[in-house]
Amino acid sequence: MRIGVVGGGFAGLMAAYRMLELGYEVELFEEHGRVGYPPHCTGVVSQETVDGIGRPAKEALEASYEGLIITLDKVKCKLRTREGIAKLDRVKLEEIMLREVSARGVVRLGSKVRRVTPQGSLELAGERKHSYDIVILAEGIQGRLRAQIDLIHNPTTSLGVNIEIPGSSGEKGYFKVGFTPAMNGYTWEVPVSNRLVVGALSVNPGEAVRAAKKLAGDRRRLRVYGGRVIHGPPLPRARNGRVVVIGDAAGVNKPITGGGLWPNTMLVNQWAGYIARGLNVLEAFDRAYSTIYSRLYKQYKLARAFYEAPASERVKLIRFLGSLLEKGLCDRLNGRIGYDSHEELLGIILRDPRLLVKTASLILKNISIIKKIIL
Ligand SMILES: Cc1cc2nc3c(=O)[nH]c(=O)nc-3n(C[C@H](O)[C@H](O)[C@H](O)COP(=O)(O)OP(=O)(O)OC[C@H]3O[C@@H](n4cnc5c(N)ncnc54)[C@H](O)[C@@H]3O)c2cc1C
Cβ(226) to ligand 1 under 6 A? Predict the structure, then answer.
């Protein structure tokens, strides 16, 4: 079985890595001369993601946290997550993964793929056509090749900006995330040894830049980087013929945060698991994709109410969630919610009779918001 992979970002490298482990012949094309550049990602992931990636993530580990401090409309919640959270050096991660993939497969850096067909062929300028049994398209957010095979995708996106400054946040073992009603996005402060990564994302790019700069203040900037972040929905159908689409190109991202490493790790690992159990490679992909799609779609309903709703509704949603935290949701979530399991939020409220009683009037007042999140 010959597999062609387009894109040497996280998703393409992760898929290539697993397919090589299964014993397939893999050829990966990356248009840039190196991987990981330009840097864009903050690199905050769950421990489940670190374990799911394996050794390369452990080698690229920069910091670990017990949880996060969420501020929602002035309500502060110090939340220990069900499992730990990690900060990875994203450039290093991709460099290590590249090394692993190059050791067993063929990697062609500086090679831009110009055309793809559902039959599994790839075209590069001045070369004969390359034919594969399976093509994995992991070309990132722009999705130019994906559009050539009629898989059209228009997710909601925002701009994310990271600014690295010297210093620390003062909260050992936790990083901070802040939501305010005025902002169509959120901010973060992630401590890493003697520096702090502060940043913001917003559907309104100017707002993201302003919020990140405000957090950095007049401190010396060690590094500034960022890019577009995807908030769903994921692509409903991620395969045409022999070509499968993964990563940002398919919107396989956690819709609230835009995090792409967890869902792609889950997708690729589950795909490889089904193949190892004897399923045909394409059927195995369809099955694994439908599992991650349904989880991400549930998360998308909450993200949609936040990123796509009119400002007045977003304000109500943030105030509602803030009040829930204040009335006991923060305690209830402590140690019980996974960093990636945003879709579990409402279930946790609804399954807890004491919390339900405490928040009943709040829930009744906000029933229209809840319906939007559920339906
Ligand atoms: C500011 C910011 C912060 C983020 N923070 C986090 C975070 O904390 N945690 C998290 O999990 N996620 C985070 N993300 C999201 C995460 O970075 C992405 O989901 C992930 O990097 C996407 O990987 P990818 O491989 O799908 O796409 P990309 O990384 O964009 O890789 C696509 C690759 O394909 C190559 N390519 C494209 N077209 C072609 C072609 N025609 N031929 C050959 N090569 C081609 C590109 O050069 C590129 O290298 C963040 C993103 C941003 C922007």
Answer: yes
Q: For the whole prediction, is pTM greater than 0.90?
A: yes
Which of 213, 209, 229 has the alpha carbon at shortest distance from 158? Answer: 229
Q: 151 C-alpha vs ligand 1 centroid, how far in Å?
A: 19
Q: What is the mean pLDDT of residues 162-177?
A: 90
Q: How confident is the model at residue 375 (pLDDT cuts 50, 70, 90)?
A: low
Best of 10, 93, 116, 342 for a ligand 1 pocket test (most atoms within 8 Å of beta carbon)? 10
Three-point CA angle 247, 249, 250, nearest 5°: 75
> Cα–chain-centroid distance for residue 240?
23
Q: Which domains does the chain have, with CATH numbers?
A: 2-36+89-154+233-303 (3.50.50.60), 157-230 (3.30.70), 310-374 (no CATH)
For 127-130, the CB contacts below 8 A with 24+ separation are: 130/4, 130/27
Q: Does the beta carbon of 7 lie inside 6 Å of ligand 1?
A: yes
Q: Which of 94, 95, 123, 103 is nearest to 4 (CA)?
A: 123
- Run of H or E including 64: strand 61-72
